[in-house]
Amino acid sequence: LLFLGNGNIGAAMLLRVRQCVAANAPSTHASKLRPSIAAARAVPVAARAVATRRSSHAAVAVSEHRLHPPFARYAHGTVVEPHSQLVFTSGTLGIHKDGSIPESAEAQARLALGNVLEILRAAGANEKHVVRLNAFVTHRDHLQAYMKARDETMGGVPPTASTLMVVSGFARPEFLVEVEAIAAVPRPRRRAQPRWRRGFSTASASCVSKARGFATAARPSPDAVASAVAKARDAGVKVFARADDDANQLRMIRKLSRDAFEYSPVLAKKLEGLEADAVAFAKTQDDVVSVVAAAVSENVPVVARGAGTGNYGQAVPLFGGIVLDLSGLDQIEKLDAERGTVLAGAGSLLSTIEDATRQQGWELRQHPSTRRNATLGGFVAGGSTGHGALLHGGLSEDGAVLGLRVVTAEATPRVLELRGRDVFPVVHAYGTNGIIVAVEVPLARAQPWVDVTACFPSLKEAAAFALDAGNAPSVPCRGAAVYQAPLAFKFLDKEPSIMHADRPSTDGDHVALVQCAAAGVGPIRRLAEDNGGEVSRVINAEDAPRPMYEFGWNHTTLHCRRKDKSTTYLQSVLEPDKALELVQKVQDEFDSSELLQHLECVRFGGKVGFASLALLWPSTHERLHEILAWHEANGMPIFNPHTEVLEDGGMKQTDFAQLGFKARADPGGVLNPGKMRAWDEQRATTEEAADPRGSFAASYRLADTSSLQDEDVSTKKRSRYWAEWKTTDFAGTDLSEAVAILPLAATEPHGPHLPLGVDAMHNKALLDRALKRLPDHILALALPPLDIGASGEHSRFAGNLDLSVDTASRLWRDLGRCVARTGLRKLILYNSHGGNQALAEVVARQLRLEHDLLCVLACNLNFSADEEAVQVFPQEELMYGIHGGALETSLMLHLKPDLVDLSAAKDFASRAARMPPATRNQLRMHAPGFSTKCGWLSHDLNASGVVGNAREAAADHGRALADLAVANLVELVTEVHEARVEDVLGNEVESPHRGPPVDASS
């Protein structure tokens, strides 16, 4: 979007309005309107004054020889980022709430502008988001008064597009000024749309929840949110609030307001950009009670969240409010090794629980494929089944959940203890009728599991084998999955953990993957042969590079989406008695370019059938719904993953008993509003009891489990150094958002006053300090430092250690490959040696090309010239003091003073600084950035190999530099950790080559 300023001659040449802009729809041409980062930060050419604060939008700069400059502090036009939420105010007058009207034009203008800002704040905007400001006055004498009031009221932020007009008058003669505004609030950028989504209409530019098809709840007022936040903070709860306008808090709020709903193109369109007003971090049950009480008192929505691994928008706040992060409730309260039960906090990681139970000979009966980072409470509240369902069925089975501790959303919240079938109103209810704070589940005896992969010539044979394995009475199987060709070969076989190590698969292979007890490998192999298949791989589960379950359930969808973002899926049930018949029916109906079957074996009431998570590539949204409808019509019930509404997903219906539970536990409807249709419509979705498990008794007491362990089974804080992790740590941790840091340094001469290891020493010290200061939730791993780098420029000096350019490049790229193979997608090259920088920039691009890494290059002493810690040094030193000068010597005086010989320090002036002025603009020995420069060796700049004035060094200066460098690194690592790789990197190419795939390594 582009808004024009005051009526300028020829202004129409600035803009061709696209028809899609009216609906604020994404456009494939949006990049042509978006200014570069540099342009967005520059002061517009046509601007008359420098603003003390800047708008969040970019002004259009037009050369003055083409247009007359603006008459005041505004720009000719304003570019609005795509996907922004537009806010339009009506014409607003200078009138008080009580109806009184100031006499002077300036006072009216100030009041009118204040009223405009109140309207904008109610919509989540502020003065920085204003893109156009129109003002009307009744006399020319009022113009200056208005502009003075505008500049003061708007906080120094000039409107980037503006109109100021003199009019004959308003409805009442005492009004002298009227103001109207347009604001645009940027949203998180969406990823590039799959081709089949382009051209479909998006949500209205107003983007209110009702326009998106949600229920009729309203977003709370800023005052209500502020009051609830204040009450929670007064109770000692940590809360991040949007109103604080803190960049780090806003990033965290944005991150914790979403889950993995992007697997659905429908939900991706519907839920993208919806964010909470605040996030509360509960550490105890009392914290939960305090937050809920504060929210209820102000009628502010509360959305409970575990790890956010759900796929249906379970944890997305549809109407703002407070997201309640329960990950801090991570204690294992009771582990009964005699009875085989565990009671743990809702925020306990499933991986942590199972690691603890295995030490006692037990394991979880079932868990989702996101076991690494999913929480127990999140699984029970938002999940339904997973790995282990072949043996034990899903969470809907009586006994799958033994007990729950739940906080109600009443004026005075109660803590209910639910037992037996009383748990079912809360299980898989998305936190709509109670906040789960603790869960008790039964365990199963731990087994030495073995993963077996088999290939088959037909899908029906692979499916028959999986069913036979699941039904074999003497062979315990924890899981069995089937992949229609070429799904496994195309999307799974190239993973870092190769599925078929003993026999390479082909695109014609239909693959089955079974996890069985060690003693069952022989029978499973024979069952494969009986069904016309061949076992291609057998490996102990604990030795597998990647767990079997991370190839199954929705991890299959994840792997496919990593290679093809247009992939989506369905969820349906193929009943046991007709399972093979239905598999064949689906295969006959759909071409493999549109649907590939992915089947998971599940025990339904004692019989084994399939849960289908088929992969889809529909051409349109309409076609997607046609595919779902076809399954329903042909006897395969759909559990719709493309809706955020509980009942519409099909896994749960709300009868009158469950609706009554909601009415008692959440009478104000503040818990995750918009997700339970029965509550919004105030009627049950079924006239009869939805299931016997839906009724509940009056008792709310959790049974006491025995044999409580005295020892603390919680895990200790993990190291942030790669070399200190065990291989089991890497195998059992979700690394998808983790940040690897590769320190690049050098061991090279630094003159007579400094040791050779300067770069390595200060790089290590700064990195160590930064790692200690990172927030606890940041998963960052520092790789072993590379203390020898590309130091050929110092090769004439004694003691120099250097790698050739080829060797350094290959070493860095090989380590990047290892990082990617381990499962990380984010890497920071943290460099302290100038000679590494140019080569490292090339390597960063190669790692992006070869391994799809988000690879960030950072120099540890790269500071802005306006930083106070830098301004103490002379300008010439900042320009030319590149090696062993004032900055590095100061840093070493702070970090390693015993290794600095100040008596040998002097002004090692650079020859580049003494070049004749006539040649400085072109021929330069040394220059920063993209400037013209020579290839140089250090003795070209100074015979000592040192370049800079070491006499300017001081330990205090070094301390300030170190503090600044550490703060910069903490900020960078935090930003990289919070960034979504898909939002930063672009994978769509407008004009791709038509030849064979290019080998990136070449």
Write the layout of secondary structure elements.
Blueprint: E1 2-4, H1 30-33, H2 37-41, E2 58-59, E3 77-79, E4 85-88, E5 92-93, H3 105-122, E6 130-137, H4 143-153, E7 162-166, E8 177-185, H5 222-234, E9 238-241, H6 247-255, H7 265-271, E10 278-281, H8 285-298, E11 302-305, E12 322-325, E13 332-336, E14 341-345, H9 350-358, E15 362-364, H10 376-382, H11 389-392, E16 403-407, E17 415-419, E18 435-445, E19 449-456, H12 459-471, E20 477-483, H13 487-492, E21 510-517, H14 521-530, E22 534-540, H15 553-563, E23 568-569, E24 572-574, H16 579-589, E25 595-596, E26 598-604, E27 607-612, E28 615-616, H17 621-633, H18 656-665, H19 677-681, H20 727-731, E29 739-744, H21 758-773, E30 780-782, H22 805-822, E31 826-831, H23 834-851, E32 854-859, H24 868-871, H25 875-880, H26 886-895, E33 907-908, H27 917-920, H28 938-941, E34 948-949, H29 955-978, H30 981-984
Parallel strand pairs: 6-7, 10-12, 11-12, 29-30, 29-31, 31-32
Antiparallel strand pairs: 1-3, 2-3, 4-8, 5-8, 6-8, 9-10, 13-14, 14-18, 15-18, 16-17, 16-18, 19-21, 19-22, 20-21, 20-26, 23-28, 24-27, 25-28, 26-27, 33-34
Helix pairs in contact: 3-4, 5-8, 12-14, 12-16, 21-26, 21-29, 22-23, 26-29
Organism: Pelagomonas calceolata
GO molecular function, one term: metal ion binding
Keywords: Hydrolase, Metal-binding, Zinc
Question: Please, could you describe this protein's structure?
Answer:
The protein is an alpha+beta fold and about 1000 residues long. The protein has four domains: about 60-185, 60s Ribosomal Protein L30, Chain: A (2-Layer Sandwich); about 220-445 and about 655-675 and about 690-700, Uridine Diphospho-n-acetylenolpyruvylglucosamine Reductase, domain 3 (2-Layer Sandwich); about 450-650, 3-Layer(aba) Sandwich (Vanillyl-alcohol Oxidase, Chain A, domain 3); about 720-925 and about 935-985, Creatininase (Rossmann fold, 3-Layer(aba) Sandwich). It is about 30% helix and about 15% strand. It is built from 30 helices and 34 strands. A seven-stranded antiparallel β-sheet has the order 22-19-21-20-26-27-24. Strands 13, 14, 15, 16, 17 and 18 form a six-stranded antiparallel β-sheet that branches. The longest helix has 24 residues, at about 955-980. It is globular and about 90 Å long. Mean pLDDT is about 85; it is low at about 5-55, about 190-210 and about 690-715.
